[in-house]
């Protein structure tokens, strides 16, 4: 299974440890298509610049079976990727931490009700619960 992980890479540096924990757990379910270096510095300079990043990420979306998006930190890029994944009819799991004090976009929060849980799910989580949420999600996914 190919799993595309996305989170706010340029603007979400404070969440890098959480992103790393999510990616590590996702690797137990399949190949994770994500930035090679989810680090404190963000994504380094890539040959070809932003255009190459766009092309690579869009190719990952095409290749993936599931998108897991950490949506606590607002990001135009992540929102765009989720929209593209919806058009491609990919399965999408959005993870949001209410304890951040942020408010999740209504467009994300209510997509589940409009698209159905088969394709789109939003899960509130705390850092210590994320592994269990992923276990439940992928357990259900592999049953179907």
Class by SSE composition: alpha/beta
User: What spatial order of strands do you see in the largest sheet?
Assistant: 2-1-3-4-5
CATH architecture: 3-Layer(aba) Sandwich
Helix-residue proportion: 40-55%
Coarse morphology: globular
User: Can you give the mean pLDDT?
Assistant: 88
Strand content: 15-25%
Written account of the structure:
The chain has 144 residues and is of the alpha/beta class. The protein has one domain: Rossmann fold (3-Layer(aba) Sandwich), CATH 3.40.50.450. It contains 6 helices and 5 strands. It has helices at residues 16-26, 49-63, 76-87, 106-109, 111-115, 130-143, and strands spanning 2-6, 31-33, 66-70, 91-96, 120-124. The chain is globular and about 40 Å long. The mean pLDDT is 88.
In short:
By secondary structure, the protein is of the alpha/beta class.
Could you name the key traits of this structure?
Rossmann fold, EC 3.2.2.-, 2'-dNMP_N-hydrolase, five-stranded parallel sheet, 6 helices, phosphoprotein, single chain, 144 residues, 5 strands
């Amino acid at each position: 299974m190919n799993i595309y992980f996305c989170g706010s890479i340029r603007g979400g540096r404070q969440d890098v440890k959480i992103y790393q924990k999510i990616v590590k757990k996702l690797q137990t379910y399949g190949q994770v298509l994500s930035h090679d270096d989810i680090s404190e510095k963000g994504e380094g300079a890539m040959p070809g610049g932003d255009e190459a990043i766009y092309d690579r990420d869009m190719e990952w979306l095409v290749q993936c079976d599931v998108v897991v998006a950490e949506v606590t930190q607002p990001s135009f890029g992540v929102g765009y990727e989720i929209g593209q994944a919806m058009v491609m009819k990919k399965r999408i799991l959005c993870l949001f931490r209410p304890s951040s004090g942020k408010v999740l976009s209504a467009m994300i929060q209510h997509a589940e009700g409009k698209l159905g849980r088969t394709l789109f799910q939003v899960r509130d989580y705390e850092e210590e619960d994320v592994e269990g949420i992923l276990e439940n999600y992928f357990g259900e996914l592999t049953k179907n």
